[in-house]
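Researcher: Go.
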Amino acid sequence: MKRHYPNWLVWGSLSLVVLGLLDSVYLTYEHFTASATLACAESGIVNCHAVTSSEWSRLFGIPVAVLGLIFFLGYLALCLPSTWRRSSARLDRLRIAYGATGVVMVGYLIWAEMFRIHAICLWCTGVHVVTIVLMFLLVAGSVFVEESNAE
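Model: Structure:
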């Protein structure tokens, strides 16, 4: 069976992955330069520096920004048009499972921001939103997959 995906799913997922990747590259750069250029307020509830330099900015000793970068690099491989053309139900399930892992991580990070750090990073929120919207797009898009016997 050949699977056909709508163009909006292929290009929408790729666009979201690129946005998440760019945001993650920026956050990784900021992590390794001690947040020298974060364009974000540093007081009150919106405080990127407090979030990106907190004890919660690492998971098992690995900077969360680097984990985000790795996550979106993996997602890039899964959402390239050439990967979509492989039209595999297995790849579809992998995209959804990969996205679910990202959404769980986002939930953990939002919890840390709200209840441990008591501050929000707008750049991090961008990654969170992209991850959740991407997951929604992939799940919703799975409804519109067409299958045919043509090879």
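Model: The two ends are 7 Å apart (CA to CA).
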